[in-house]
Structures are given as structure tokens and as C-alpha cells.
Amino acid sequence: MDKLFNFRKLFRDVALQSNPTHMRSLAVTWVDKLLAKLTILIVNVASAPTPAILPQVSASESIRLQMHHDMVHAAVQLPDKWDNLKDVLGFDDFSPAARRLALSLMFAAYVMETQFVHIKSQEWLEASQVPANVLPALHFAVDYVSSNLHSPSSPSNHLSQRIFASMLISLFSVANRRVTTCQVGKSQPPHLRPKGFGNVLGLIQFVLDQDPENFQPLETLDVSQSILLFWGNVVPWSWTTWSDARIVDTECLRCLTATWLSHSKQPLSGNFNDTFVLETLRSSVLFDTSASSSMMLQLLQNIAQQMIVVEGHEHNSISARFLTTLCWTIVQYFESNAILAEPAITMKIPEFTRCILVVYSCLGLAREDLIVKDLIIEALTLVCTEQFTLALQAVLKDKSYQFISKLNDLSRMCSGSLSCQQTAELHQTSLHAAMSLLDLITIILTQSKDEAIAGPILGVVSFYLSAIFTFLKSERRNSFAISYLLDSSLFAICAYQTFRNAEDEEEYSDEDIWTLAIHAGSPNVKTIAALSQYVVATGQLCGPLLFHEAWDYLLSTLTAIIEREVPEAEEPLSILLSPTLCYGLHSLFNLSSGSARNCALASPWTLSMKIALQVLLEGDVSTHSYLEILKQRIASGGEKLLKKMSTSEIQGPSLDACQIRPKLIYYRDDEYSGLLLCL
Question: 223-230 and 195-208 helices cross at what angle (nearest 10)?
């Protein structure tokens, strides 16, 4: 741009030399015409929701010519030097068209150009070269525009004004972040306090054109709103700039954030594969976790409160895309806290957890609701027991939530939908809903410390598990329904064992569960690990025949994992679940009779597994990454299994459940995503 303005000055000087009587301000050069065309193009490009999508211009030829003619006259008014362009923005000496043109050029140079060049990078803000002396001029322009909005002669909510305001805010956010050198927690510059806060917030509200109390996202965006959301750094910058919710007029930031989340352009599906979009979202929300999490928590509290007062499970007023993206950001916070132990997140986790439990209980069985539920399940697996207990206690204590009643309704809806005749697509949705509720039950029972907390929902759990196992027993072997629900059902029943009374009569028996796990469905490492978990949790055997079937079932799978004979896609999951198989074999061996043990030990497959496990644990596997990771993962459980199989005791002490407390993990890969209960 600087070079272009130098050419403009050069040709103006040439024009004046050829005609000295000609006024300098009336000399029109080819650069002025080019700047006019650029300005129109800038607005058209910036109006697209993302830099990759350009809108179609449908104006007539006469209108386009008139627009170009007006912009040429505006371009003539601009100063000779590019560095002086900032001074045009807030002065009455220049026409409104000239101010709009100057801002458009600066917006293109400092925001759009850098964002286009670094479109596949998250470093575009750091690459932006906004001069430090631009920020005071922008502040002056903000004050000027804000005062004009309240002028009686100002047109009411004119789109051109709102476009000007959105470009100004976008450029302001980038310039301010550059000046503060991207350091979170630094005090704001004096020109932002206190008048500057109100003026910028007023411009944001002016562009949004919504009731400040409304936290719902805008469904459709005009040009000014697209610029505000997708160009520059307005939304993340606003969280840090107004991090205290007590500041007056900050309510409009809820609508701004909700709209930004709702229009983030990721596909509305359970598989978030748009890496660029997700990296952009993640880096934005994790840049200043204290400020951004406060805003997300405000939105989640508003949503939870609104859902409570709505009857039934119909929440069409809340955008599914907005809720999905919001829950995804919560997962990012919880993951970041689990790795980095961030105090700003840790203190908010109980409240986040309370809200997402309420939201889960209010959602229905629609496909969009189930995607949100999956994200809630993933988030809950990242909450520690103490924090989860605090959240669950708060939910159960507040009778307005009707948490138990809503879980009971969900359990009856899920179990009822399974028995209905449906199309294949609807049937899979019903299975998905049933699995999701099983996962929630597993989390609640695993995370609850004692029956005083989990006790109120045990009646719902007992009914639902009985209904699920009745349905599974009625299905034919190798059916899709059994393969879909069996693992989650086994994990849920394992978690239920801690609270289940021996005299309780259920619709299922240990033999039913063993038979389902061994004979129903195609063998896979998740089902085998779930059976291992069940054997450890119950400490019961089901007769010699099922014992030998289960022993061979677990033994062959563990041997395949050690000898790396599992499919490559299943290797990470196999390594993760290998200790569970060791503890399952340990429990089978420990609970069996002497004759059953001798028979198992005499098997050549048992001897083959022992040798392979000993070589793995005692050998040097540093040159094999798979075996090295497997050795680290399986060491404790493998050593205990070898010791138990090598002892001469006929009956030894049972496993101490406290030493192998199950852990909740939400696993994702290209083949599978879902809840796991691991030892």
C-alpha cells in the first residue's frame, strides 16, 4: 500500500506540473480509480463468512458504476502518504465516503492480507504488522463514530455505518493485541479506560443490533456482522478486555460469543475432522482460559436455566450447532486442565459439571441432542471424583432440576424406543441414545464416593439395566444391536456392582452376562476387556464350562496383543486395555477350583502366553516402540498374573479392588469413539 500511495503522489505531481492551475485535490490518477475498485472488492470479500467463500455480486451495472464514481471522488481526498491515512478516520474535514475508504484500505492491509497469507497457520495475529501509532488514531475514531451514532442527524442503523463500525472494531482488536505484545493479564492501556470500554461495547452492540439481554446466537448474518465475527480477533479479544462480567453493558458479549460459536463452520457431526477449524477454535479459547472460560460458563448457565423452565424435551429455541460447539470448548478446557492443572479452570469445573449434567438430563433423543450428549460424556470423564461429587450433590439438592425424574423419563424413553419397529437409521439413533445413558450411569456410579450420593438414582439404574439386558437377550446372536450396546452395558453393570445388594432380584444373571459376552457378537478387544472388568468387579464364576471358555477368550486376546497380531488400527486400544485383560485372567485363575487351574495351566496356549509375557517383561524391547509402550502399560498387571500362575497355592487372596480402581477414559480414533472403563 505504501508503494501504491507513492505512485499516486508521483502521478499527482506530474499532473500539477503539466497544469499548474489545476488544484491538487481535483487531480484524479489511475491509483485513485484502483483504490476505489479495491474498496468495493474489500467489502464484498469481507462479507463472506470465511475467507474461502466469496459472495456473488448481483448489483446492476449502473449501480456499480455509480458506486465506483463515488469512491473515486472519495479516494481523491485521501492524503499523499499511506502513514497519514489513519488520520482520516476521525475527522470531519473528510467526507464520510473518504473515511469509509480509508478504513477499508487499512482493514485490508492490516487484517485481511495477513489473515489470507497465514490462512493455514495460527500465527497470523503475531504476523500482523500494525504500527503502534495506529491505535491512538483508532481510539479517536471510535469516539468519533460513537458520538455520531447518538447524533439526531445520524441515519438510523444504516448498513454502511455498521460496516464501518465492524471494520473499526476488528482493526482495533488486532492493533490492541499487537501493542500489548499478546501478554495475558497486563493492565489495559489508559485510552481504554473507562470511556473507551463503553464506546467500543456500544459499537459492538450497534453492529449486533440485538437486545443486550439476548444470549441466543444470530441465525443469519449481514455484512457487518460477518466482518465482526470472522475478521480480526474481536471475540477472543473481547473476553480478555472485558473479563469481569460486572462491567456495565458487557451482556452483549454473550450474543457475540454465541453467534461466533454457532457459525464456526465445523460439520454438525460426532466426528470433528476439520483440523484447521478446530485448531483455530482451540487456540482462541485457550489463549486466555480465565477470561474465555468465564464467558463460556455464563452461556452454559443461561442455557441450563432456560432448559429447566421448558417443558418436555423440546428445546428448538437453542441452536444445536451453538450447543455442540459450546460443549466441545468445555472438553478443551477440561483436557487442558487435566494436563496443565490450570487454577482458572479448576475452580470452575464443579459449576461447569453441574450445568452439563442439567443440560444432559433436559436433552432428548434426536440426533443433534445425542452429539451434544457424547461431548458431555467426554467432558465428564475428565472431572476428578471430588469435583464431580460436588456437582452431583448440587444437582440432586436443587429440586427445581428434577434430575432423578428426568433420568427416569430418559430411561423409559430409551428402553421403549428399542422395542419399537423402526427404520435402520432410527434404530441406530435409538441404540445411540441407549448407549449414551448407559455411559452416564457408568460415570455417575464410578465417580460417586458412596451410596449416600449415588443412592437416589439406583432405582433408575436398576430398572434401566434390567430393560437393556432383557432387550439384549431377545436379540439374535451377532446382531448389530448387541455389538453396539454390549460393551457399554457391561461397563455400566460393573459400576453398579459397588452399590448392588446381594438380595436384589434383577432380570439378568451372571450366567446371562457371561454368555452374552462370550457368544454374542463378533469378538473384539473392547468386549473382552469389558468381560474382564465384570469378572474382577463381581468376583464370581459361572461353572466350569463358561470358565474355560472365558479363560480361552481372554488368553488368546492377550497373546495376540503381546505378539502384535492385532490389526494395526486396534493397536492403541489394545495397549490401553491390556492390563484389564491381565487382571481378568488373574481373577479367573484366583476364583477357580484346583482342577480347573491345573487344566488351564496344562494348556499349551497358556504356556505360550506365559512365555511371551515373560519375554516382554524381562527382555530389552527399547528398539520396538510398540513393545516398549506395551511393556510400560502392562507391567504391573502382567507381573501379578505371572506370579499368581507360578505359585503353588490352591487358593490365594482375591484382588484388592482398591488397588485397581477402574478409570474412566473417553477414547477416540478413526475406528471407534466412546467410553471405556480401564484397570
Answer: 130
More confident residue, 519 or 572: 572
- Quick check: pTM over 0.85? yes
Give how far Cα 664 sits from Cα of 190, 383, 440, 453, 675, Å: 49, 10, 11, 18, 7
User: β-strands 663-668, 673-678: how paired?
Assistant: antiparallel
Alpha-carbon span 7 to 37, nearest angstrom: 17
According to the model, what pLDDT value does residue 650 have? 46
The 3 state secondary structure assigned to 254-268 is HHHHHHHHHCCCCCC
Q: Given CA atoms 612, 555, 580, 643 in this order, what sign does their dihedral have? A: negative
Say how far residue 622 (Cα) sits from the centre of its chain: 36
Helix 252-262 vs helix 289-309: crossing angle, to nearest 10: 90
Cα–Cα distances (Å) from 354 to 77, 115, 295, 383, in that order, read 59, 38, 16, 11
| Cα 615-620-624 angle, rounded to 5 deg | 100
How far is it, in rounded angstroms, from Cα 574 to Cα 584?
14
Report which of 344, 362, 335, 250 is spatially closest to residue 298, judged by C-alpha positions. Answer: 250
CB of 39 within 8 A of CB of 103? no
Reported as a single tens digit per residue, the pLDDT across 591-640 is 888 788 888 888 889 889 999 999 999 888 888 889 999 999 999 889 98
Quick one: which of 404, 406, 428, 405 has its CA closest to 417?
428
